[in-house]
């Protein structure tokens, strides 16, 4: 029975989420429109039809949890490290003091920019059992303090940052077509759509959200695709003098040397006139941002759209356009030739000899400024800036040439990823028959390839 349930669960092809926190790399995700109950019902039916033994709902559910499979949920997510620490502290009777909200007020943050993180409310008043030698407690204390510090910094940037301040996040697993109620649709290998969202932090200056969207038939979800989506956002905001991106700390693609090199080069190029771009990172597990709120709005819009049916990718793009009003979101639907691969790649040997070398995992802030090809970073939000060179001498020589044109070094895609014939045939045969006739053309026109690139 164990094996039968496992195979059934795997038949939904749960996907690894590249942008989850690094300490939970084995977690797999299923799309939002699937529920454990629906999966169990279908399993149970199938077994009965084949006159095979079935199992209870709770057995199925337990197996799903044991396999580390989750359903993508939007909104506040609980932090695993905090939960583990909470359990440890209860068991060991340890109490840990973390930096309270009041400490930040004393540092002179204006009243209006007060730390609004609800998780900062449960600070301990007194420590009755200071666990000076408990590694678990000390590590958690550091984690919690960083989480509070970065949240306060985020809240402060809402009003204090002098320029465009947005949070950036990729919307979690969206599969198309979405036609709730039809098992055939939910249970088949659909196409994955991407929505890299750049949402204003809020506060006093609230501009439009910018959604950069594409799907796996156009391009993938690799580091260069994320770099291409950042570039789209920079091009839309190319006249902003100062740009600030708040990112989650989980995605390896948000902390990637090729992305850093690309940022240094684009801010020094004629592609944009921006003077500086800053990256700031939230602590893993405490990464709720304005972009997540926008994703929740998109999800709501999708449920209302055409009775919850999103037959095609253009319908999905429309849902994003209508996700919220005042101001309406700007939507850039990426074509394959908007994607590129950078030709400047990071060589680890450049920094390996440095005594004090930057470790991307520890970095909290990075700043890319026009006029400098160096990498400027901070391991906290208030410590001194550090800097180092991240280009090889050969690269620098090329960059400094008068004739150097950064845009010409980008290798743009010459074709889309496409879809394998067998997969397309399945969608046409099984799914398109459930759609209004006018929606089938989109699927019929998808460009076929022999072997699709690895996603
Ligand atoms: Zn936490
Ligand atoms: Zn402890």
Describe this structure in words.
With 455 residues, the protein is α/β, with parallel strands linked by helices. It has 3 domains: 2-71; 80-160, no CATH class; 164-412, no CATH class. It has 16 helices and 19 strands. The chain has helices at residues 2-10, 36-49, 57-66, 80-92, 101-106, 135-160, 183-186, 223-236, 257-267, 290-304, 313-321, 349-352, 393-400, 406-409, 421-431, 440-444; strands at 15-16, 28-30, 69-71, 164-170, 174-176, 178-179, 191-200, 210-215, 242-247, 276-281, 309-310, 330-333, 340-341, 365-369, 374-378, 386-389, 411-412, 419-420, 448-449. The strands form 5 sheets. Strands 4, 5, 7, 8, 9, 10, 12, 14, 15 and 16 form a 10-stranded mixed beta sheet that branches. It has a 3-stranded mixed beta sheet with strand order 1-2-3. A two-stranded antiparallel sheet has the order 6-11. A hairpin with a 7-residue loop joins strand 15 and strand 16. Mean pLDDT is 86; it is low at 18-23 and 101-127. The chain binds zinc ion (2 copies).
